[in-house]
Amino acid sequence: MSGEQVLLSGTGGQGLILAAIMLAEAAVLAGHNVVQSQSYGPEARGGASKAEVIISDEKIYYPKVQTPGLVLAMSQEAYRKYGLNLDEAAILVVDSTYVLEVKPRQKNFYALPITRLTRSELGGEQSANVMALGVVAALGNLLTREQVTQAVLNRAPKGTAKRNLKALEIGWQLGREAELPAGNRNAG
Amino acid sequence: MSGEQVLLSGTGGQGLILAAIMLAEAAVLAGHNVVQSQSYGPEARGGASKAEVIISDEKIYYPKVQTPGLVLAMSQEAYRKYGLNLDEAAILVVDSTYVLEVKPRQKNFYALPITRLTRSELGGEQSANVMALGVVAALGNLLTREQVTQAVLNRAPKGTAKRNLKALEIGWQLGREAELPAGNRNAG
Q1: Which 53-112 residues of chain A touch chain B by CB within 8 A?
Q2: In chain B, where are the structural domains located?
Q3: B71-122 pLDDT, tens per residue?
Q4: Which of B30, B35, B22 is nearest to A38 (CA)?
Q5: ipTM score of the complex?
Q6: The domain A4-184: what is its CATH number?
Q7: CB of B33 closer than 8 Å to CB of B60
Q8: For A12, which residue in chain B has the nearest alpha carbon?
């Protein structure tokens, strides 16, 4: 892997900075170089917030995402800002709980009810960020499940490890199944 | 204020990323543009870890710290890596609990027992990061106490708000007192 630029976007309270920090930590555990960042400017005050992770085996000269290889959008506004005009090869994941209007996209597009599943499986929206991390990590094919699990354990706030590991597990499976051709789902 | 580059350094478990995120959030509340980042590379694996915050009223073109205006070092190794070769005008804060050997520095140098005080005042080392944030914010003269308090409340993990606000208060006072000429200490 020569490089991957990941953009996690949504609204302020969704915990995407923490998800990005966990993703960065997993990539460090996998031996890569990583820069993780968030920018706040006039545009950030508009509502959409984003956290970036750049993963590379080379030295990272410019530490901001320029050509995302994977975008997660957890709100309609974030989708509008970051989910359009992507390279065809880029992977786009939207949380279909919140992103209801999407432009058709042939390939590498995954609309998954991440927050809704977090509510139904874990009794509340907390840990939707970690479920999203599981989806992204599984679809990105960058990291092993063990590396991501370790990163979540290292970074989960006190008392939330069990819940977050459950969220990660569900998200990982969701990502893995989404990758399969439609005919093979629930078979693998 | 045209710009300020802040570097919070120490070891992995000290919570400096969270302190940097809180500092960034306070600067956003104050209406500034902010980029907050952490880099992990071969050098980061050496032991010293750092989190960066760039605060500006202009657009931030290069999002990494190049000429720090304020450095916090919470370990001897971090001091060695980031606390030497600073501009004379840069503010250097070291946690004297861990940074025992220092090169003399005439101006803008503050050796404060941050972790030791956290232990004695709060019964453990947790929240030393927030006490350090209080010191840095008070010495940096960038932000009001209210802005930093709000940022800590927004970002403190569940159940830790009270402890972290106490840590912030002690850190803020420590920073304010350290700034006074020696003769005036404990008088203001």
Answers
A1: 59-60, 63-64
A2: 4-184
A3: 999 999 999 999 999 999 999 999 999 999 999 888 999 999 999 999 999 9
A4: B35
A5: 0.88
A6: 3.40.920.10
A7: yes
A8: B154
